[in-house]
Give the backbone structure.
Amino acid sequence: MVLDLFAGPGGWSVPLHRWGIREVGLEWDEWACRTRAAAGLLTIRTDIALYPAWIFSGRVWGLIASPPCQAWSMAGKRLGLLDQPLVHQAVADLAQGRDTREQLLAACRDERSLLAAEPMRYLHALHRSGEPEWVAMEEVPHVLPLWKQYAEVLRGWGFSVWTGILNAADYGVPQTRRRAILLASRTRTALPPPPTHAAVAEPESLFGPGRERWVSMAEALGWGATDRPVPTVCAGGGPGGGPEPFPSGSRQALADARDRGAWTRRNPGTGIVLASRREGSGWAERHGTRENRPADGPAPTFTAEAHRWSWSLRSNNQANATVRRADEPAGTLFFGHRANECVWVAEPLPEEGGEDSGAVESIRITAAEAGALQTFPAGYPWQGTKGQQFSQIGNAVPPRLAAHLLAPHLGKTLGPDDFTLAA
């Protein structure tokens, strides 16, 4: 089997499941475990730091690990960077069979920091029986020095190892998500997978077709190359809803529309830009009708003529937030607290006569949209409130990137189509 530590909602699992490979995921988060169960993925809900590693001996073909990144990520307080010497010490001790985690944990500034050392505990236990055959690990870029320490140990155990930083956009993910990767194998030379996409499309050469252009958010969400998108607007509390994930008092224009449900794109041929799905009791009194709004009529909340607006995705509320147009890949998606609220922002198109009202409207991204930008299959059964779903999505490995990292170990070939996994 393949043992997946910190399995999350199933980023690594999607390609493995599709390829029919038996995987056991270890995960602590309740809602990630519920999502995995709904997706038909085998999961042991446990604290990985307490679970005995020896029970898997003699059964593991491949080991996957994506430790929680909050302690190291730029999206958090990054106390894990201050704990790095302690984590390196834990890895060195565990590689020798010495468990000093309790003493080291007492000195850590972030209790999650030492979780990055847990894969070494499992690797040491499995190594006694000549396992696993291969290893794949992923984390935020700041963890690369730790992966290099792992690589040194694994090479001493007979593995070929590659470590480095990869950009998910180079593998068909509509997101410029950079991650530190470790790939190791006992049976083949470990190398990074060849990229399939580039910032600029490459022409065909004597060596074959060039790389395709990075996949844009519009392509991934099915908005089309020429169709100007109107993303779903979710005000929270609707069917299957739950509370808003990150309430924001800064969007006064949407605050008084909280009683209406969602606005979804309609076929442009009908002339309807927006249609009401659940307008609520106060909307009719304010606007005089519950009918759909035509393209040349006022659309409530955010635009008078939605087809004349350009949409971009803003990664968070901070001053240095990444903002990308819909015809580009997203920046790295991360969620977890109010400062990391990911929103669509709309601006008028001057060339089409759009008028600048002096304000830019913003609309929270939906879980379905975020999941698509992480390359999870459409309709993936996310469980929990919106906040819990966003947290799972932001922490997950994009399945498309996972497929490229795993394919060489599994003897699989990826098809050329975007987001298509070929057996």
Summary: The chain has two domains: 2-200+394-410, 220-392.
